[in-house]
Amino acid sequence: MFDPITLKLNADPLILSALKEDITSDDVSTNSVMPEPKPGTVDLIAKEDGILCGMQVFQRTFELLDPETEVIWEKRDGDPIEKGMRLAVVNGDIRVLLSGERTALNYLQRMSGIATYTHKMAEKLKGSGIKLLDTRKTTPNNRIFEKYAVTVGGGSNHRYNLSDGVMLKDNHIGAAGGIRQAVAAAREYAPFVRKIEVETESLAMVQEALDAGADIIMLDNMSHDMMAEAVKLIAGRAEIEASGNVSMDNLESFRDLGIDYVSSGALTHSAPILDLSLKHLHPVD
For this structure, is 137 an active site residue? Predict the structure, then answer.
């Protein structure tokens, strides 16, 4: 759940930007049929099964248009929902309900879709001790929402952004002249509290990363057999993350490797939306 400060400082500007994208001058359709304020109510309905996520953002979208808007929730983030369920009732000025509908639903559908997809993937690792991680492969300006949705679905967040941790990927290694040089430079530059992760693509690179003192070694796009050999080579001297083309179809193949983490960009870049709808809008006296 977003705390009030995070919501106000980080989420509000993004939600306002999304609203401005949808309303550049006026809402021609709404203002033509509803020129004056009128109280109304509308139901939020699930059109398919899944995991609900994004209720604060959905609600905040309407509140930024009119703080008097009321959302009465019947479910909470993380709750399983079923097709046909009423999830909430939204009360307020009909003009606000109509103008904010698409933006509010866009956030709720996207976040619920990610939470639902993450939940399905996390179930495949249940009991293995492996932590499922997301990546930075998020929609621009929506990372705060998408990474939150991953946690609601049962996954965990990898670093939030480039300021959040040291990950030396192939191009960093190339720029530095090798793994040893890259790790040494990171040790010199980064705060001592930061762990250093190194991306590797071969057993030779794994050995270099070990020799350089990497805290976390990423096994990137390796075959199952090569990852098994890498785990033996590391022998507990570093944490291990597997990555590269991790999907719903192959996730269970990682269970027997003895690794600590599996990261998947699919959690955010391939999750379909969850179909939700605002229905039965009508005036109230």
Answer: yes
